[in-house]
């Protein structure tokens, strides 16, 4: 299978996704959500999409923002651990719903711990991260030690 670096072939489209991603990050901050939570959402979405490039990048970013190795080790099974707050659990469940596009909507994340602005911010963050995962996987970005 032939891989094409999408960012090099269509740099304007790539820059548009970059702008979307930056706006989603800013929406998370404006909504009063912790930067570490944003990284957890990016990591979980990347796990679901199988994007090694984004997993490595956002794991490093999460560590730089103070995330612990224990929490990172269990984020793939967040619902089974006691490491995450109610708000973090809601955000991760919402990000999974956005990524998987479950129909009908499950709404398991809707426990009142996220306000409307935060729901929108996490949704946009997951949408942007899904775009990045698809760009990285489709472009076959190298991930080597």
UniProtKB/TrEMBL annotation:
Organismal lineage: Bacteria, Bacillati, Actinomycetota, Actinomycetes, Micrococcales
NCBIfam families linked: ahpD_dom
Classification via InterPro entries: AhpD-like (IPR029032), AhpD_core (IPR004675), CMD-like (IPR003779)
Name of this chain's protein: Carboxymuconolactone decarboxylase family protein
Annotated Carboxymuconolactone decarboxylase-like domain residues: 21-97
Top-level taxon of the source organism: Bacteria
């Amino acid at each position: 299978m032939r891989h094409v670096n999408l960012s090099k072939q269509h740099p304007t489209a790539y820059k548009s996704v970059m702008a979307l991603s930056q706006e989603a990050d800013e929406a998370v901050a404006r909504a009063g959500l912790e930067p570490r939570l944003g990284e957890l959402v990016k990591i979980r979405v990347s796990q679901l999409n199988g994007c090694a490039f984004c997993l490595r990048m956002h794991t490093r970013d999460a560590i730089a923002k103070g995330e612990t190795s224990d929490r990172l080790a269990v984020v793939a099974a967040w619902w089974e651990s006691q490491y995450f707050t109610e708000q973090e659990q809601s955000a991760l469940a919402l990000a999974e719903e956005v990524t998987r596009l479950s129909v009908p909507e499950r709404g398991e994340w809707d426990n009142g711990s996220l306000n409307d602005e935060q729901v929108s911010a996490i949704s946009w963050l997951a949408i942007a991260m899904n775009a990045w995962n698809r760009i990285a996987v489709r472009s076959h970005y190298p991930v080597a030690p």
